[in-house]
Structure formats: C-alpha cells, structure tokens
Amino acid sequence: METVSVCQMQRDTRFEGFLLVRSAEKRKDVKGNDYVDLNLTDRTGEINCKIWNWDGTTEVPESGIAVKIRGTVQEYNGRLQLRVERWRPATPEDPVDMSLLVPTAPRKPEEMLAEIRETAASLSIPAFRQLTEGMLELAGEELAWFPAAQRMHHAERSGLLHHTTDMLRLAKAMLEVYPWLNRDLLLAGVIIHDLGKIEELKSDQAGNVTDYTRDGQLLGHLVRGITNLNRVADRLGIHGEPVTLLEHMLLSHHGESEYGSPKAPMFPEAEALHWIDITDARMNTMKGVVDKTPEGAFSEKIFSLDRRVYHPRYTDDAE
C-alpha cells in the first residue's frame, strides 16, 4: 500500500504508515464503551483518529511519539477522520523519517537566531538593546526549537523563530514607509513580544505542543512576558520610560480584550507591532491552508480565521 501524507488523504481510502501523536485521550462512547481519541500529524497536516472498542490491554499512546497506523479514512461532520484498525509504537528498527512527520520552519534555527541577535545588537538606544539581549538570554536554548502555537499559526518546530524573523522583516519594510517610527522600540518589541510562550506552552523538542503549562493557564504569555521583562530590567538596573513602553507593547499586541489584551495599543510603535503580528499570523495560516487545498477548491472552515479559504487558479488554463 502506497503511503500518502495527511494532506493527500481522501474519504474511503486506506492508510498504512507512520504518523506522530499530537494528543491522545481515552474516552467513553454513548454506550459506555472505552475508545481512544487521537490527533495524529505529519509535516503536512493533522487528522483526528478513533480507536474504537479499546480493550485497555496497552497504554494510550504518548504524545510526541511516532506510531504505525492502519485504517480507513472516513468523513464525520464535514471533516476527514481516520478509523484505526491496528496500531503500534514505532521501534528503532522501523524506517521512520522524522523530518516527514514533524512540521518544521522553512529556515534553519541557527540562521534565524543569528538574524534576531544581529538585529538586537544593532539597536542604538542602550536601554532597548540591553533589555532585548537580556530577554533573549533568559529565553535560553529552548528558543531554538520552540513552536509559536499549539495548533494555529507557526505550530511547528522552531515556529517561534520563524514568526519572529518574518515579523522583523515586515517591521523593517514598514520602517521604510514610515521612517518616523522609532526603529529601536519597534524592533525590540517584535523580538520580545512572544518570548513568554516558552513558559506558556508544554512542548517537546519536536515542536509538538501537548497542553498549556500552569503559567499558561493562569497568566498567559503576555503577563509572563512582562514579569520576565521586569526581571531583566531589575538585573540590569534599567527603569523608567523604556521599560514602560516595552511593557505596554507586550500587553497590547493582541489589540483588544477579546483576544487577551487589556489595553489597546496607545502609541504608534505598539499599533505597528499589533498589525505586524496579525499579518504574519494570518498569512502563515493562509499559506498552510492553501498548501493543503487543491487549486480551484475551498478549504473547510478554518476556526482561527472564521471562514473558508479559496486556493486560486490564477489563470483560466485549468478551467
């Protein structure tokens, strides 16, 4: 049986191959029988799976491991679902290519880290440079592989670096159009705005997020980012306006209370950060959806966008 990727799966087809466990949970059906609900993924996408009539003789698969799956692709409520007939954890002897299973940023993490550090070092206002470099140091080694989200934009290995470097490029282009913006403040805000996610999300080194941490549930990355910024500022002995401006950018970059920001952006660089963040997040989501949707077709409804997405043909040749 030829193995297909998740994005190639079609209703009423058979599948046999290796996938990565994103999440797995034992549940009960309406008759009280145990079954296992899984979300399995490869680098092209994710599919929900069901193991019915779970006998409990083996442990529920752990998130982050590769499993060999055999089953049939079905459709439920307009979404594809894999009904699992047989499964087992992958062994060291299996020909598993993890690069095919793990969504990964398109650029090498060391290259993206170098781009961010070079930008931080280029900041001419000492307070912004020192605070930004201090926040990067506090983020530690996890920044190299950490994802930017559990399921939404940049949910991939090194996704946080991918999101940040693309935002830096957008910010630098915006500075060409609006040179009156303060370069140091805007670029510092871009670099540090999501570093709190490292303490918000539970992720393995494959970039697979299983849940939110206690900090993530109780505080979130906006608040944790501010507390981390204050730690760095206290250690460096930096106080006053530069710290307050960066605190506001961290607090307001989601734009409005509906999305977690208790304050709307109240100065130009904060407003710019908000729209750069939204633009990059939505374009990354759009690209991921279009890559999985045939030309001339609409996707299923995308929760984070609250709409379906069309993959244009761009010409009439395919008509």
Can you give a write-up of this model?
This protein is of the alpha+beta class. It has two domains: 6-101, Nucleic acid-binding proteins (OB fold (Dihydrolipoamide Acetyltransferase, E2P), Beta Barrel); 109-286, Orthogonal Bundle (Hypothetical protein af1432). It is built from ten helices and seven strands. The strands form two sheets. Strands 1-2-3-5-4 form a five-stranded mixed beta barrel. The protein has a two-stranded antiparallel sheet with strand order 6-7. Helix 3 packs across helix 8, helix 5 crosses helix 9 (241-252) and helix 8 (220-236) packs antiparallel against helix 9 (241-252). The longest helix is centred in the last third of the chain and has 25 residues, at 268-292. The radius of gyration is 22 Å and the shape is globular.
List keywords for this structure.
319 residues; OB fold (Dihydrolipoamide Acetyltransferase, E2P); 5-stranded mixed barrel; 10 helices; 7 strands
- Spatial order of the strands forming the largest sheet: 1-2-3-5-4
What fraction strand?
15-25%
Shape: globular
**Count of β-strands:** 7
Contiguous uncertain segments of 5+ residues:
none
> Could you say how many structural domains there are in total?
2
SS field, number of helical segments: 10
> What's the level 1 CATH class of the largest domain?
Mainly Alpha
Instruction: State the distance separating the first and last CA atoms.
Output: 32 Å
Radius of gyration, whole Å: 22 Å
Provide mean pLDDT, rounded.
Answer: 89
Please give the largest β-sheet.
5 strands, mixed, barrel
Element string (H = helix, E = strand) = EEEEEHHHHHHEEHHHH
Second rung of CATH, namely the architecture of the largest domain: Orthogonal Bundle
Structural class label: alpha+beta
- The CATH topology label of the largest domain is Hypothetical protein af1432
Question: Helicity range of the residues?
Answer: 25-40%
